[in-house]
Design brief:
About 85% of the residues lie in helices and about 0% in strands. By secondary structure, the chain is mainly α. Helix 1 packs antiparallel against helix 2 and helix 2 crosses helix 3. Pfam families: Sigma70_r2, Sigma70_r4_2.
Length: about 160
């Protein structure tokens, strides 16, 4: 097992520069590319070694491509939300102190519920609900089965978040 992890680490490091160049062209920022690669590498090293990865290079390229796509989608969603929220934020400035306190309390309740979730459930829920990543991509990124992701999403949604 330890030998397999060492070989995998060596393989990942062997492809780091090549994959980072690919990612930099894809996302337009070397720092963002390095962050994506690091995250993918960490997830890859944490995943169950069975079944073993037959082609580490192909796996890395697929995983970083998916992660870059998810990042870009998340950034688009954030930009769209900012456009949608702009009028609401203008109204926010005109709201009464009572309404502001009530809204703040509601946000705090939701944050408490999310924080009370088990770590894996919380991570999956945030990726799914807040970042808009589909369940299949979450499973791939986290190195878990699709049914595991579905179970955790269902568990979080049952709390009416």
């Amino acid at each position: 097992m330890k030998l397999r992890a060492e070989n995998l680490t060596r393989s990942i490091e062997g492809y780091r520069r090549e994959v980072n160049r690919f990612l930099t062209r894809r996302v337009g920022c070397a720092d963002t590319a390095a962050d994506i690669f690091q995250s993918v590498a960490e997830n890859l090293l944490r995943r169950d070694p069975d079944p073993p990865i037959k082609d580490v290079r192909a796996f890395l390229y697929r995983a970083v491509k998916n992660a870059a796509f998810n990042l870009q989608r998340s950034e688009r969603t954030r930009a769209e939300l900012n456009v949608l929220l702009a009028p609401i934020m203008e109204e926010w400035d005109e709201r009464s102190p009572e309404n502001i306190i009530e809204s703040t309390e509601n946000v705090q309740k939701v944050e408490q519920i999310i924080q009370s979730l088990p770590v894996l459930t919380r991570q999956i829920f945030i990726m799914y609900r807040l970042h808009g990543i589909n369940q299949k991509d979450i499973a791939e990124q986290m190195g878990v089965s699709l049914s595991t992701v579905e179970k955790h999403v269902k568990k979080a949604l049952s709390l009416r978040i």
